[in-house]
Amino acid sequence: MLTSSDPTPSPADTLPEALACWARRRGDRTALTYLDHRVTPLGAAATLTWRELDERVTTVASVLYGMSSPGDRAAILMAQGIEYVVAFLACLRAGLVAVPLFEPTMAARLGSVLADARPSLVLTTRDRFRAVRTFLDRDGRGPRQVIAVDGLAGAPVRHGVPVLPGRDDPAYLQYTSGSTQSPSGVVLTHGNVMASAAQAARAYGAEPDRAMAVSWLPLFHDMGLVLAVAAPVYAGMAAVLMDPMAFLEKPVRWLHALAASPGAISAAPSFAYGYTASRISPADKASLDLGGVRALINGSEPVRAEVMDRFHDVFAECGLKPETHRSSYGLAEATVLVSVTAPGAPPRRVRFDRARLGAGEAVLADADDPRASMLVSIGRPAGQEVVVVDPVRRTEVPPGKVGELWVSGPNVGQCYWRQPVRSCHTFGALLGGGPKSLRWLRTGDLGVRFDGELYLTGRIKDLVIVDGRNHYPQDVEATAERAHPAIRPHALAAFGVPGPDGERMVVAVEHARWVDDEWLDPGELTGNVRVAVAREHGVAPYEVVVLPPDGLPRTTSGKVTRAGCRARYLAGTFSPVGAR
User: Fold this and answer.
1) pLDDT tens per residue across span 143-187
2) What is the pLDDT of residue 516?
3) Which of 86, 190, 320, 321 could be bridged to 14 by S-S, CB 3.0 to 4.6 A?
4) For residue 548, what pLDDT is reported?
């Protein structure tokens, strides 16, 4: 069992209380900045001080309190920005259960989530009001009450907010981003949120005046919401936000925001670091100083060593220190954070024997083994207990053995909204030989303890088992990506499908945007992938599917979903390049 010390005690029991505390102590200091790149190329800055933010939240909360009852759900359907933060915190202050969502662009998923959450009202902004109202009328499953939050600025506080939520009261529903199953809303209490915020603040050094949160991550996702809103409000640390599309259009905007924010703390999934490194020109780096960045968090998907190296190679001349990089692991069911690497040194990386790892044992590879699996440490627990468990026997396995990661701590959510059976399986696991009163969160992720640190090896459901041997899809995908220059980076999926004699492996890839379909030879590409995978993994893919850019299904966070790929493949709904 790996355990860390308890997180630093919070100054309040809930985020609204913490906000009120900082409004009194740091009223005129800037709390929140939003860089709007639609107004100017460099991003027009809109700001709120701690006092202004507290007053705006109180105003909106008073209106919400007068229109609903404590415990009602309130869905947030708006673009990234200051109003999103105000709406979220106002829901919490009014005793409502916030449901952080997004604009009605992904209509099918949004409709399903609203039908599951059953909110009594929807919060949006004036410029999105008509689109949201039209969507709700057409969908027929949403509430009738829609409020434009920015239209309430300066309104008198009519009702007051006499309700005072407790630590055990639900704060919000965090819907997971999977796209192949019914919506799953994790019920997170005010206590869960404060515990996670404290863990993040302590792990990354969030503190007033010495650090600033910088984020382009969507606020409807766990990492974006906790690291850009909850942790800063908990710690009294200023936050700088920008829109995800602003980053995707020009990733240098993220870097400029980092350089302009003393002690910047920021987070992104692994693909974003590779994407940024590939989209930066020498001119972009000419005056870029990243020497003051405190922490760049790599989470949300397995950390790839070669991506870390590429990012640091590109930005070393800008003063970026290798130890700035912090690998982390978390999931929505644990609010967000579970483990993180220590500050002051780059995350440790270890080369393991691939065959032994597939058999469930972490053994160092020979120095000259070209087929070794390179894993990057995800550190140690960040304020909770983590055990590695045999998922069948439900007993803890010794260091060096691969098993399922189980988590217990104050940050672990309560259940899935309206899913009692699945909740019991996931949130109510009992460890064989352990105290019957202690229930564990089953993450579904496979990992191993090695030399005191955790390493993530894959997901139980994603394992491809061919001829009795386990193959981790991320290893196969990394091999396939290197097999041909026309394959788009980070746009692959390896998954298993049933066959007459057992499971078969399928590899689906997207070709790069610069590749012309008429120039591309799908036969050559698939042949290269087959040979590379067979040589390095000892298994020949049953089929290699070549797709155009954006041909693979993705979650709302932009990650390729293997389960979605498998479902489309079995349904025959892929549109391969060259197919007639």
Assistant:
1) 889 999 999 977 766 666 677 899 999 999 999 865 445 789 999
2) 81
3) 190
4) 94
Chain segment 78-108, per-residue pLDDT in tens: 999 999 999 999 999 999 999 999 999 777 7
How many of the other CB atoms lie within 10 Å of CB of 223?
24
The answer to whether 524 and 484 are in contact (CB under 8 A) is: yes
Check if CATH label 3.30.230.10 holds for domain 351-366+381-460. Answer: no
Position 160 scores a pLDDT of 65
Query: What CA–CA distance (Å, rounded) separates 449 from 380?
Result: 10
pLDDT beneath 70, residues of the chain: 1-11, 156-161, 177-181, 300, 557, 578-580
Beta bridge partners of 212: 264
Q: What is the location of CATH 2.30.38.10 in the chain? A: 351-366+381-460
pLDDT at residue 233, rounded to an integer: 97
Query: How deeply is 155 buried, as exposed, middle or buried, from its count of CB atoms within 10 A (0-12, 13-18, 19+)?
Result: exposed
The CATH H-level superfamily of 14-254 is ANL, N-terminal domain (3.40.50.12780)
Distance CA 533, CA 481 (A): 10
Q: What is the DSSP string of 340-378?
A: EPPTTSPPPEEEE-HHHHHTTB--BPPTT-TTPEEEEEE
Q: What is the pLDDT of residue 119?
A: 96
Provide the total of helices (H) and of strands (E) in the chain, helices listed first. 18, 28
Return the ∠ at Cα 199 (arms to 193 and 205), rounded to 5°: 125
Amino acid residing at 109: R
Task: Judge residue 491's burial from the number of C-beta atoms within 10 Å of its C-beta, 0-12 exposed, 13-18 middle, 19 or more buried.
Answer: buried
The CA-atom distances, in angstroms, between 455 and each of 341, 348, 352, 386 are 11, 10, 11, 12
- In sequence order, what are the beta bridge partners of 147? 123
Identify any residues that bridge with 240 across adjacent strands, giving them in sequence order.
Answer: 33, 214
Structure tokens at 461: 């459901």
Helix H or strand E segment including 248: helix 244-249
* CA 211 to each of CA 123, 144, 260, 295, 481: distance values in angstroms, whole numbers, following the listed order: 31, 42, 12, 10, 37
463-571 is a CATH 3.30.300.30 domain: yes
With tokens 């902004």, the residue in question is: 125
CB 397 within 8 A of CB 389: yes
What span, in angstroms and rounded, lies between the C-alpha atoms of 330 and 336?
5
Taking 3-state DSSP, the helix, strand and coil percentages for the chain, each rounded to the nearest 5, stand at 35, 25, 40
Block residue for tokens 């259940």: 415
* CA separation for the pair 149, 56 (Å, rounded): 10
* Distance in angstroms (rounded) separating the CA atoms of residues 307 and 309: 5
Neighbouring-strand partners of residue 496: 505
Task: Please give the pLDDT value at position 580.
Answer: 43
* Ranges for all domains in the chain classified under CATH 3.40.50.12780: 14-254
- Res 11: pLDDT: 64
In this prediction the pTM is 0.90
**Listed residue (225, 165, 143) closest to 13, CA to CA:** 165
